[in-house]
Amino acid sequence: MVTKVSKADKKIAYDQKLCQLLDEYSQVLIAVADNVGSNQLQNIRKGLRGDSIVLMGKNTMMKRTIRVHAEKTGNQAILNLIPLLVGNVGLIFTKGDLKEISEEVAKYKVGAPARVGLVAPVDVVVPPGNTGLDPSQTSFFQVLNIPTKINKGTVEIITPVELIRKGDKVGSSEAALLAKLGIRPFSYGLVVLSVYDNGSVFSPEVLDLTEDDLIEKFALGVSMVTSLSLAISYPTLAAAPHMFINGYKNVLAIAVETDYSFPQADKVKEYLEDPSKFAVAAAPVAAADSGAAPAAAKEEEKKEEPAEESDDDMGFSLFD
């Protein structure tokens, strides 16, 4: 005879399992599980098996376990998980790459029909074309102000129609029409809301950042620091080269307008007194630049020319 496990024993076992996972894993994905069925959740568990563990449960029980475990172990970082446990959410504990696990979770989405009273997660647009419905079904289209015509004994939608907007509730007429057309406009699955990594919590969009994105953001930050430093005349490592150049320009301008001079300013004064000297000095540089392009072009032409085959290369002589 199989003994029935009491609710108290189930809670104890769940508490122990959650504590064990908190000790073993330092990375957790917090995912919402609205409209996700048990079979779909089982498939997600199978797909993540080996790298990750999906744990669902009541938010109050998970919060209590996390608080008690933080007090026992002194690991205060896990308390950052508590504010994230809102709504129908689950925890995905993983030791793998967070981005890969997040992408794997997103694959397990199942199409679902539009049910009455459901809040639409996306816009629903009915495409134009033949519906296959007989003319007696035109009442559905008239109620929803969808332009139609009768073509070869069936109802045909003339133009695409936005039937439901994102965030609106699905009405009975919309649900009936979509069911008749065989359209399943919504898809549901686990959606990652937040990412926990060694005490840090951030949005899943951070996982999509590439090295180029990070370099671009870093360069933008350096540019802002440089601009601010130059505006308030506060020296920083980023602004120092610009400050030196600006200082050199100021000293050079003073030297040009006064009798004060230094070696670099002497050459500038010489060019200002006789601009032809500047033209002579710039000519070799311009010639070198203009000559480099044709030389490079000729080199490319030589590479592209096929090698001529000699008689010896062809294996015989024309005079044999």
From TrEMBL:
Residues 291-320 are annotated as: Disordered. GO terms for biological process: cytoplasmic translation; ribosomal large subunit assembly. InterPro entries: Ribosomal_protein_uL10 (IPR050323), Ribosomal_uL10 (IPR001790), Ribosomal_uL10-like_insert (IPR040637), Ribosomal_uL10-like_insert_sf (IPR043164), Ribosomal_uL10-like_sf (IPR043141), uL10_eukaryotes (IPR030670). This is 60S acidic ribosomal protein P0. P0 forms a pentameric complex by interaction with dimers of P1 and P2. The lineage of its organism: Eukaryota, Viridiplantae, Streptophyta, Embryophyta, Tracheophyta. Belongs to the universal ribosomal protein uL10 family. One of its GO terms (molecular function) is large ribosomal subunit rRNA binding. It comes from the Eukaryota. Ribosomal protein P0 is the functional equivalent of E.coli protein L10. It comes from Coffea canephora (Robusta coffee). Keywords: Ribonucleoprotein, Ribosomal protein. Residues 114-183 form the Large ribosomal subunit protein uL10-like insertion domain. Pfam families: Ribosomal_60s, Ribosomal_L10, RL10P_insert. One of its GO terms (cellular component) is cytosolic large ribosomal subunit.
